[in-house]
Design goal:
By secondary structure, this protein is α+β, with helices and mostly antiparallel strands. Helices cover 39% and strands 22% of the residues.
């Protein structure tokens, strides 16, 4: 069950101010006046958040464990579900701090931090999409679901498409046929802000959807994830089957 409580997943910093002399803490020998302020969420680890949500959604009963093994055979199981969950939480921009709150509670010794929660409206949307995802039974249905969520529609030839998962490298991506302005903007973003969350060590999921294009491949979805990869090794993508 997914709960709106992410204490061990999303980290934060804060400042504390004290007024011990006015509050009488010095006389009592116990500080009870700590006042927490300036609470700031630190950069959200989207892979860690993905893993957490996936684990919460699993049915670990005997029947559920059996179904997990079948899912692995039918459509790729854990890897595919985590990829789709990652696309859902990215769609709702959970890397932005505005979606997160840290509760401040009064204790015997001054302010204390409580639960780290997601904005309730966003949480309800994420939870709904993730539950719908986990009910889908095929790789194609899952990929189409997250593409529809992200773009609002499916390209006509994707409506009846199937997908395979394959390994490719950047060297076989045909960039010439693609939107050059979009490529320019993505590369500028990489140089300016970095795409560190998509580098080879931190991002271990498939990187998007491609179509065979002559001897190479054309990116259909996943520009940032593929261009953000700095390694020379291959990475996994979903190939649209003809």
């Amino acid at each position: 069950m997914l709960e709106n409580r992410f204490n061990d997943i999303v980290d934060y910093n804060y400042d504390t101010e004290y007024s011990c002399e006015d509050a009488g803490c010095n006389d009592e020998g116990i500080c009870r006046c700590g006042n927490i302020y300036n609470v700031e969420i630190t950069p959200v680890d989207m892979i860690k958040l993905t893993d957490h949500i996936y684990e919460c959604l699993l049915d670990n009963s005997k029947a559920g464990l059996r179904q997990q093994k079948l899912n692995q055979l039918f459509y790729g199981g854990e890897l595919i579900d985590k990829y789709c969950i990652n696309r859902i939480i990215s769609h709702y921009k959970l890397y932005e701090t505005r979606h997160w709150e840290v509760e401040i509670e009064g204790g015997y010794y001054g302010d204390e931090t409580g639960d780290v929660t997601m904005n309730q409206i966003t949480f309800d949307l994420v939870q709904s999409e993730c539950h719908k995802l986990m009910e889908l039974e095929t790789l194609s249905d899952k990929i189409k679901s997250v593409l529809s969520l992200e773009y609002g529609y499916l390209l006509p030839d994707l409506e009846t498409a199937d997908f395979d998962i394959i390994e490719i490298s950047q060297s076989v991506i045909d960039f010439k046929s693609l939107n050059q302005n979009h490529i320019k903007l993505v590369k500028e973003e990489k140089e300016l802000n970095g795409l560190n969350h998509y580098n080879s060590s931190s991002y271990n999921l498939p990187r998007g959807v491609v179509r065979k294009f002559g001897n190479n491949y054309k990116i259909i979805d996943g520009f940032h994830r593929m261009i953000g990869y700095d390694g020379s090794k291959s990475f996994s993508v979903f190939l649209i089957k003809n």
